[in-house]
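Hey, quick one: can you model this chain's 3D structure?
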Amino acid sequence: MTNSSRRRPKRQALRLSAALLAAALLAAGCTSDDGADDKPSTGSDADATTGEVIGGGSTFAATIRRTTDGVPHITADSLADAAFGQGYASGEDRTCDLADQIVKIRGERASHFGRGPEDRHLNSDIAWRTIGIFERASQDWQNAAPETREVIEAFSAGWNLHLDTVGVDGVGGWCRGENWVKPVEPVEVYAYARSVALNASGSRLARYIATAQPPTGPAGSPEGTGASWGGTPDSAPSGARAATEANAPTAEPEAEADLASNAWAIGSQRSTGGGGMLLANPHFPWEGELRFWEVHLTIEDEIDIYGAQLSGLPGIGIGFNENFGWTHT
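Sure thing. Here's the predicted structure for all 329 residues.
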């Protein structure tokens, strides 16, 4: 493994960063209770090819090994170096996920994809510009915790290194060759993380913002009559007309499926093997945004964690180490 020449962050800072980054949603893991004879493997001994060393010099460095099924096992000297390797591997596997989400939160889908069916992309742009998540994140970025900034900057550097290595025409997935696939700025990744935090709140309203209309009927009437643009439904803009005819606004792509999650924890007293078990069952999509990505992160004498993360974000949101597992709903 190549060493980074940067000064290693203090152990307390690493733990703080890990706690902050683990807030995004993820996949599953299981653990043994304290005192159990058997501990689960986090994959350190998995059969893998010789690791690919990326980075180096005075910035970041990491080693990436791929197991038979392609899962990246990333080894580094610090949390920032691990995030750098994770960004590179994420770019290898899921370039289009993050690139598309940055277009979304900046409110630029219609400029690249057209208005969309029933003004879907236009309505998305109106909604996310109204929510203003990119502007809010840009204002807050300079005041973010130094550990958070360092990890996001490292992740962005790794993602950009992969894009620079293969070029836009060399990325995998449906966005290959598209002019909106560009190097990411750390503040854009930060803004995307902030948008994920709105998944159970503000982003659920995104489907309604562009087509919302105030009632125009008589005072006290339970339903309005007429349309807020001063015409009939047939003369309304297409997005509003679709909302009128369907009695519901046009849905954002990411809001079409209802999301939920559950989890089961079984104590050692109730398991056959005498160890605790944890099942994480997030009901998230298999494709597109909000899908999970399996990864293993190791920092010698610091962390050895296995799990999954939302594509395009650093850290592990739901996972396990040799002592315990964690999840959330």
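One thing worth noting: Residues 1-40, 44-48, 224-255 have pLDDT under 50 and may be disordered.
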